[in-house]
Design a protein that fits this description.
33% of the residues lie in helices and 27% in strands. With 395 residues, the protein is of the alpha/beta class.
Length: 395
């Protein structure tokens, strides 16, 4: 299968570079979706467009089981600074996280699987908006779920390129592969005035200093030491002049967690600590926006992916990662059915570029590996479905 995938490498490179040159932001992937639909139909897939707003579903085969392979499509609001022939032609927009690679790999796997005989259906889910939520707070995964993208699916697979990992290696986590994420917004309300008379005002900047320290103490002082969690304040906005005390200060930050009980505890503690503002004469407004759930890889799917990868690239190239607190909306799919995501090494030798960087790029030799792992794993599931037993998890 890897040899077959390598024979498609130039085609996957062509696809990838085309998507890279014409990146589109979340829920605006119109050209991207049209191109994917065209290619999938040419290969022989039944195609449905407009799924989850701008998503594409392509499938081949009949009956059951149904195995899904997901690839996200959206780019980021970043101006590319690479000097390459396939540099982004869309001002201020760039595929700086590798979703263009994900699309090309999935199309490569679609081509490979179209040449195989198997019982059941392979369904490719080309998902919009992994990076950003819409006006109702939903990203592409729940939008596609609403539109039936994983109806009857018994297992769903995904990958994400990893620029810190050598090309030829993969990482796959047993159980938690990424954290859940929520976002909080706090408006600290005070009473403004001149900086020369601080005793006549209620200074929201002064109050914010105490609140920031309190919030940063939640993980270390209010949670169990064995409960992984992160709280980071990312923005502070208040005041316009050096000699004027403002009326308000706005803070925003991110919450990362693995356990929903910890998630609720953090929400409660942030609300409790916001009372500091009132004790100091001010007030507050708090909004917590619930985001992506933790991504929990299904143990049997992980074992199968490892077995396939061992056959294709060797067991020494399979790495078990430490738990990380990044987030991915693929977790929504794993709340509905079994499945797993693995990380695909795409490091350019000697390169230190990382994701969401204006100079992000990949070693395109990674693409046949991803396509082969997808294809071979899907075939094994279709020809011998994995157990329906799912270890109990809190979701």
């Amino acid at each position: 299968m890897l040899e077959k995938a390598r024979s498609l490498q130039q085609q996957m490179i062509t696809w990838r570079r085309d998507f890279h040159m014409y990146p589109e932001l979340s829920f605006a992937e119109v050209r991207t979706a049209s191109k994917i639909a065209e290619i999938a139909a040419e290969i022989g897939y039944r195609v449905r467009t407009g799924v989850g707003k701008t998503g594409v579903v392509a499938e081949i085969g009949e009956g059951k089981p149904v195995v899904a392979i997901r690839a996200d499509m959206d780019a980021l609001p970043i101006s590319e600074s690479n000097k390459v022939p396939y540099k982004s032609k869309t001002k201020g927009v760039m595929h700086a996280c590798g979703h263009d690679v994900h699309i090309a790999i999935a199309l490569g796997a679609a081509k490979l699987l179209s040449q195989e005989n198997f019982p059941g259906i392979v369904r490719f889910i080309f998902q919009p908006a992994e990076e950003v939520e819409d006006e109702e707070g939903l990203s592409g995964a729940p939008r596609m779920i609403e539109d039936g993208a994983i109806k009857d699916v018994s297992c769903v697979l995904a990958l994400h390129v990893d620029a810190s990992l050598n090309t030829g290696e993969i990482k796959i986590a047993t159980e938690y592969a990424s954290a859940g994420v929520d976002t909080f917004y706090i408006k600290i309300l005070g009473k403004g005035g001149h900086g020369s008379t601080p005793h006549k005002v209620i200074d929201p900047i002064f109050i914010s200093g105490h609140l920031i320290l309190a919030i940063h103490g939640i993980v270390s002082r209010r949670l169990r030491p064995f409960d992984p969690a992160v709280i980071s304040i990312g923005t502070i906005q208040g005041g316009q002049l050096s000699n004027v005390i403002s009326e308000e200060v706005n803070l925003s930050g991110t919450i990362r967690f693995l356990n929903p009980i910890v998630q609720q505890s953090i929400h409660t503690e942030i609300e409790n600590f916001c009372q500091i503002t009132r004790a100091m004469g001010g007030d507050y407004e708090l909004k917590i926006q619930v985001g992506y759930p933790p991504m929990h890889n299904h143990i049997e799917t992980v074992d199968l992916l490892k077995s396939v990868a061992a056959d294709l690239i060797g067991n020494n190239n399979i790495i078990t990662p430490e738990t990380e607190m990044g987030a991915e909306d693929f977790g929504f799919f794993l709340q509905k059915t079994k499945g797993a995501m693995f990380m695909l090494g795409c490091k350019i030798e000697g390169d230190t570029r990382r994701h969401h960087d204006p100079k992000f790029d990949v070693n395109e030799n990674c693409m046949p590996i991803g396509a082969a792992i997808f294809s071979q794993t899907a075939l094994r599931i279709l020809r011998k479905p994995i157990s329906t037993i799912h270890r109990d998890v809190i979701i």
